[in-house]
Design brief:
139 residues; single chain
Length: 139
């Protein structure tokens, strides 16, 4: 196998990892919505907030655990499977934007702004918590 074909195979492995991870993440997002809306009778706004906060925690935890100083040895395809694939498919900034604008269009400017600010705040807080936890695990 030549260097060029090895490189091509590596690139395709990354594409496949991200694609498979994204499919899993999207299904997890859909199931989260089904459970939150149908099972708990909550608004779909809670689904978007939930997936963005949980996804922020998971991506930062995993990225820190598998980084250069991390305890977990995971190759590029494994890292992309989780971060770009699962977390990318699970979280949804576009849905959060739509939810915020729908509240504004319904005449709830304050609620739309509060929702957007709260989800961003809690997502960043969750990412920080994931980082802190991973740093402690990496010790």
């Amino acid at each position: 196998m030549t260097n060029n074909s090895r490189r091509r195979a590596e690139v395709w492995r990354l594409y496949l990892a991200v694609g498979c991870g994204a499919a899993i993440g999207s299904l997890l997002r859909f199931l989260s919505g089904f459970i939150i809306v149908t099972g708990f009778g909550q608004s779909a706004l809670w689904t978007t907030a939930f997936v963005n906060v949980v996804g922020s925690f998971v991506i930062m935890l995993f990225a820190t655990l598998t980084g250069p100083d991390g305890r977990l040895l995971v190759g590029p395809a494994g890292r992309q499977f989780v971060t770009g694939g699962i977390c990318g498919g699970f979280t949804t900034f576009s849905a959060m934007s739509l939810d915020s604008f729908m509240l504004v269009f319904e005449g709830n400017m304050f609620r739309g702004a509060l929702y957007l600010a709260a989800v961003v705040f809690f997502a960043l807080t969750a990412a920080f918590a994931g980082y802190v936890l991973a740093v402690r695990i990496n010790r």
